[in-house]
Amino acid sequence: MTSDSVKLTRAGEVATLTLSAKKGALGPDFWAAVPPLLAELQGARALIVRGEDVFSVGLDLKTSAPGLAGVLGDEAGFSAVVREMHAAIEGLAALPIPVIAAVHGWCVGAGLELISACDLRLCSADARFMLPEVKLGITADLGGLQRLPHLIGRGRAAHLALTGEPINAATAERWGLVTELLDTPEALFTRAEGLARQLAELPAAALEGTKRTLQSEANHTESMLEAVRWNARHMTLEALQAGLKRS
Fold first, then answer.
1. What is the pLDDT along the chain (247 residues), one digit of tens a residue?
2. Contact 27/78 with Cβ under 8 angstroms?
3. What SUPFAM superfamilies does the database record attribute to this sequence (predicted)?
4. d(CA 40, CA 36)
């Protein structure tokens, strides 16, 4: 099944979710399409999440801004818009099967929050990771601020979130954001597919139990919703537009 921005393919028990919009931009179509696609994973034993030309430049502000503009200052309305984004990322995290993120090129903002919800993260040497929301007058509210401290430590998560500056693939591996660094995108995708097949051969119940136990420390729902409420009260179109001009 495909949409304009994401497609799901299968090769036996391994499924692949590909961010197929230009530069992996995550717009309204993406957020709406992901939960139905995840519902089609019956029989899959592992899932790979990857991009095409790059992994993802993050939220597509040009297509998302119209939906957000009318609810700025309206906490209930803003939360309703963001809830659809949460459904996609939290749905990915809730899958009972292992989810492997294969990152090449840019992995920015919502893209970084997306991979933080995956179980394993691999990247190629050209990967760059960035959480630039502060530069747009936004508090990251899709789970990254809750998950990243568990993955890389609070100090490094704070460095990403407060500076908005990128880190390269070698730094991401050193920090523990990714666990394997491959030379090229081609080698990355080959390794991700091999790892997914390897995991698919393991007992499903043991994999799910291990995954749930690892996730049990990261009950972050209320913290994430507080970030949404903060944005509803403080986010402005002027800051977004200024940030877009700088990017």
1. 458 899 999 999 999 999 999 999 999 999 999 999 999 999 999 999 999 999 999 999 889 888 888 888 888 888 898 999 999 999 999 999 999 999 999 999 999 999 999 999 999 999 999 999 999 888 999 999 999 999 999 999 999 999 999 999 999 999 999 999 999 999 999 999 999 999 999 999 999 988 888 887 545 566 667 666 766 776 677 766 666 665 5
2. no
3. ClpP/crotonase
4. 7
Contact 87, 31 (CB under 8 A): yes
Q: What is the pTM of this model?
A: 0.89
Tokens of 86: 């949460």
What are 227's strand-pairing partners?
none
Tell me which residue has tokens 């309305």. 77
> Residue 91 and residue 36: Cα distance in Å, rounded?
10
Handedness of CA 208, 182, 159, 133 (dihedral sign): negative
Single-letter amino acid, residue 32: A
Residue 9 CA to residue 37 CA, distance in Å, equals: 10
Dihedral angle of Cα 101, 104, 107, 112, to the nearest 10 degrees: 20
CATH number belonging to the domain at 6-186+204-246, selected among 3.50.50.60, 3.40.30.10, 3.90.226.10, 3.40.50.2300: 3.90.226.10
Written as six digits, the tokens of 76 are 């209930």
